[in-house]
Amino acid sequence: MMRIWNSIVGKLWATILLLVSFVLFIVTLFLLEFLDNFHTKQAEESLQREAATISKIVNDQSGQKTDSVHQIIEDILDAETNALVVDPRGDVLYSFHTSSSKQEIEEKLLSEKGLFDSPETGKQKMKEMILPSLTEADVMEQFLILSYPYEQASGQQASVLMYQSLDAVHRTTKSTTNIVFLSAFIAFLLTTFFAFFLSTRITLPLRKMKQAAFELSKGNFDTHLPVMQKDEIGQLATAFNQMGRQLKYNMELIKQEKEQLSSILTSMTDAVVTFNQDYSILLKNPQAELLLKKWYGYNEKKEHPLPKEVFHMLEHAISFDEEVEDELELGGQFYVISISPLYSESSIRGAVAVFRDMTEQRKLDKLRSDFIANVSHELRTPISMLQGYSEAIIDNVVSSEEERMEMVQIIHDESKRMSRLVTDLLSLARMESGHIQLYKEPLPIVEFLDRMVTKFSQVAKDAQVTLSLQTEESEALLVTADEDRMEQVLTNLIDNAIRHTPDGGAVTLGVFRTGGMLDITVADTGVGIPEKDLPFVFERFYKADKARTRGKGGTGLGLAIAKNIMEAHNGSILATRGEQSGTIFICSLPFDSAKN
Fold first, then answer.
1. In whole angstroms, what is the distance from residue 529 CA to residue 550 CA?
2. Predicted local distance difference test score (pLDDT) of residue 522
3. 537 three-state secondary structure
4. Spatial distance between the Cα atoms of 337 and 311, rounded to a whole number of angstroms
5. What's the pLDDT tens digit per position in 269-285?
6. Rounded distance, CA 242 to CA 245, Å?
C-alpha cells in the first residue's frame, strides 16, 4: 500500500480523486439546496393552486350537499395534503382531514391567530409549523401551512387553510440525494479507472526512464529508450537518449585523458605528488611512491611523509599562494623541488609538487669537472716538457749532439704518452657510448694465460719480479670471448702489477671456477691499494697512494677501459686486498660447464 502512495501513479490518482471529490461535494451541496428550494416552491405553488380550486368549488357548490363537496375536494387533494375552510369567526366550515390526529391539528391551526389576521381576498400567508404526524402517533412533523383568504358567495370573508407534510419534499430530496450519491460513486469509479489508466500511460515511460537511469548510473551507457510518443514524454525520452550518448562520449573522453595522464605520470622520471588543502596526498606516480618510502626513515615528522624542509615549502605555497622552487639535499641525495598551487575557480584547493632527482646529474657534473681537471693535469706535464725541450733545442741551449738526441728522445716519449692518452680517451668514450664491437670466439683460457705470461716474462725479469701462472684446472677451459679485448684487459692488469711490485716480488695469474662463472685473478705482492680507495680504482684518472707509483706512470684510464670490456662480455671486474699484502684483481666471465 505504501508503495502505491509513494509512486507517481498513487499521487496522481489521489490528486485527481480529491479534486473530483471536492467538485462533487460542492456540486452536491448546491444541487441539494437548489432541489430543496425547488421542491418547496413547487409544493407552495401546488398548495396555492389547490387552495384557489377549493375556494372556487366551495363557492360554486354552496347550497348543495356537503358530501358531494367533500367528494370533489378529496379527489383534488393528495394523501399528503389536507385542508380546512374557516370563517372569520374561526369556525370550521369544511374539514378535509382523515387521520387520527385531525382534532389536534385543527386546534393548533385555529390557535395560530397570525393565519387569520386582516384577511384580505387573494392575500396569502405561507408558514411552516411543527404538527402531529399524519401517519405515526406521538410524532411531530414539519408542515407547510398556506392561508388562502377568499370571498364567499354571501360576501363574507373566509379562509382556506392548506397544510401539507414536508415528508414528501424530504423524500423527493432524499431520492435526489441518493441519485446524486450514486452518480458520485459511479464518477469515483470512473475517475479511479481513468486516473489509473492515464497515470499508467504517463508513468510507464517514466518507469522505463527510471530503469534506464539506474542502468546509466551503473555505467551501461548503451541504454536506449524507445520513443513511442511525440508529446513531452517522447521528447523527454529523446533527450534522455541524447544524454546517454553524450555521457558515453564524455566518459570515453575522460577515460582516454585519464589513461593518457596516467601514462605520462608513470613514464615520467620525476616524482609528482598532488596535495589537498589539508596537506594530505591525493595522487602520486610510482616514482613518487618510491621516493616517499625512501623519505619515511629520513623524516623526523612522522605524522607526514614529507621531510620537514619540503613540508615547509608546501605550507608556504598553499598559505601564500606562491610557486616555490628550491634545490635541497635530503638523505645524501640532491633534489630540485617545484611546488605550485592548484585552484578551484578563485580559491586554492591544494598544490602539485614535482621532485627531480639531481644526484646523478651532480655526479656527472662532478665527473665532468674532474675529467677536465684530470685531462688538463695529464696533458700539462707532457706539453710543458715538449715546450721546454723544444725551446731548448731551438735556442741552441744544448752543447753536444748527445744532449740534443736525449732531448729529442724525451720529446718523442712525451708525444707517445700524449698519443696513448688520447687513444685511451677515445677508446673509453666509444665503449661507454655502447659502440664497442666484440668478435667472440671459443678461447682456451689456460693457453691464453700461458701466452700472457710468456709475453711479459722479459718485462718481469727486467723489473726483478717473478711472473707465474697457477691453476688447479687440468682440463681445457673454453670461454666465449674476444681474445684481443681480453688481452688488452690482462695486459693492463699485468703491466700495472709488475710496475707496482717492488724488486724481488711476485705477480701470480690464476684461473678458478665459481658457480657459473670463470674467475681470472692477477695478484701482486706490492704495497697494495688502500681499503678506502678500492671502490674507486676503476674511475677515470683515479690515482691511489703515490707509494704505489713506480717509474713512469700510465694514463690513468687502463682500469676504466678494462671494466668496460668486462661488462661488454657480461662479466665483471673487482679489486680486493691480498691476504698479507698487495692487490688482487678478479675478472669474472660467464662459463657454461655443459660445453666443456
1. 14
2. 92
3. coil
4. 11
5. 888 888 888 888 888 88
6. 5
